[in-house]
Amino acid sequence: MKKLNRQQETTLNTCNQTPPLPVVMIRHAQSQWNLDNRFTGWADPPLTAAGIAEAKQAGENLREHGFRFDAAYSSRLERAIQTLDILLDALGQADIPRYQDWRLNERHYGQLQGLNKADMTAQVGEQQVWRWRRSYEEQATPLLRTDPTHPANNPKYADVDPALLPGVENLAQTRARVAAFWQDQIVPRLVKGERILISGHGNTLRALLMELAGMSVAEVESFEIPTATPILYEFDHHARPLEWRYLMREKAQKSA
User: Fold this and answer.
1) Cβ distance 80 to 42 under 8 Å?
2) Each residue's pLDDT tens digit, 184-217
3) Which fold has domain 6-36+47-106+170-255?
4) Is 65 a catalytic residue?
5) Strand pairing partners for 199?
6) Which of the residues 28, 108, 150, 201 is marked catalytic?
7) What are the residue boundaries of the structural domains of the chain, listed by start?
8) Which listed residue (60, 65, 78, 106) is catalytic?
9) Do residues 136 and 106 touch, judged by C-beta distance below 8 A?
10) pLDDT tens, 122-151?
């Protein structure tokens, strides 16, 4: 469990008469391109059979802990949508309000998307691939707007201002759009006392945790989120963050 700073401790002490509000965030389960070791970004491969099993285990984890949610969010990418479907089915909550928001999409990797990470390591070296994947400010070569795979040419994003759709991103840019999503969609729900489930991606959740927990650039660059492992983040009723932790399975803890 992450240690609270003094301000967070003060907030928690003043709110100890009211149970904190849970937001559970989860990186999607294993996709086909995770298995293939490719840069994925906004490409849209489905979950593997192993990924489906991972998501089912995560759903059982949430069910064992007795979680109930008032609303659920995913990105518009299939692997996150599939993961959320499986989680809600496990909870018997498939009928709660749910939303797909493009701002939860994975960081866009530009012209790297679809390329094998090991092949790129052989071509440009381990350090450059690390910078593309982990650096806060580094980014790859962007897709041209005329490229048919640019999101501006995808009907899935026809309702989004094309000027907002990236041809490539670094983590700082990803953080900006995820932070805007949080303020626009999640903060008002927390203020109303709602409990939220979010199915996202490794980089979008890294960026979001950086924003909420005040991580430094060095901390977020060395931070990686495993697939299909729920993160419980607790908030007070003013939507102020308190603390976060990975949610372990109760049965696994009891047998350890």
Assistant:
1) no
2) 999 999 999 999 999 999 999 999 999 999 999 9
3) Rossmann fold (3.40.50)
4) no
5) 26, 74
6) 28
7) 6-36+47-106+170-255
8) 106
9) no
10) 999 999 999 999 999 999 999 999 999 999
